[in-house]
Amino acid sequence: MTQTEERAAGPRARGGVLSDGVRAIGFELRGYFRVPDTVFFTFLFPIMLLGIFGAAFQSMGEVGQLPDGTGGVSMAAYYLPGLVAAGPLLAGVQNLAIDIARERSDGWLRRLGGTPLSPVSYFIGKIGVTLITSVLQLALLLAFAVMAFGVELPSEPEAWLRLTWLFLLGIATMTLLGVALSALPRSSRSASAVVIPVVLVLQFISGIYLQFTMLPEWLQHVASVFPLKWLAQGMRSVFLPDHLAAAELSGSWEIGTVALVLAGWLIAGLVVSLLTFRWQRRS
């Protein structure tokens, strides 16, 4: 009878973890959209930047024209892939790292650790809100690019398939790196000061705000160590003409390397998260 009860309790326990996780997603979403600065800096920020870059550099003409004058893209279209890649970084690394560090410092995680809530349910909520907000942001960013600047989106199914797996892999990688980075700030007050400079520097050296080819070659090699550069490169392979691959360090999109680097950082983020995550900071 005891074995029967344990077998029956197993599915209920698993179902409780999942149902708690789904409820946690709803809780996290409500909290996310109730904080204006979070919505602005992680949700609307890439859209605002695309508007600024597209309007400010529109007079510079097209980028990447072939000798016969064809094949060029507008500045808005050129910046779009980088800002698509920045979305998971802002939602996963910046938002999660600051959010978890604040919850730990304020004692929220310690109180959760004393409840029946499973850490799995807690992270389902965090991953769910990151995925949902990132997908919504991507849809708004693409719609804004088309309506405001007439950017032509890919027409081949293969490009959309590549966008899908790159985006999902990028979200998974950035989410785990955000969890890992959340262990670094010592308090809720220092969380933004620790995390935001890291995020800003990565964006500047990874071809998000500046054309990657404008950077010194040594800085391009430094950026190649980090996942954002590769995610942005993968996104350029989706949205830009194939001949612009010649501007990359290797002269090609290197999609296989993009996948390997992102997967490597995903594993590293998972390992560090498992080793460092605590409901409360150790003294």
Which terms would index this structure?
mainly alpha, 0% strand, disordered N terminus, 283 residues
Could you explain the architecture of this structure?
- The protein is mostly helical.
- It contains ten helices and no strands.
- The radius of gyration is 21 Å and the shape is elongated.
- The N and C termini lie far apart (45 Å).
- Keywords: Antibiotic resistance, Membrane, Transmembrane, Transmembrane helix.
Summarize it:
The protein is mostly helical.
Write the layout of secondary structure elements.
Layout: H1 2-33, H2 36-56, H3 75-105, H4 108-113, H5 119-149, H6 157-181, H7 188-205, H8 217-223, H9 227-239, H10 255-276
Helix pairs in contact: 1-5, 2-3, 2-5, 3-5, 3-6, 3-7, 3-9, 5-6, 6-9, 6-10, 9-10
Domain ABC transmembrane type-2: 37-280
Membrane topology: Multi-pass membrane protein
InterPro entries: ABC2_TM, ABC2_TM_bact-type, ABC_2_transport, Nod_factor_ABC_transporter
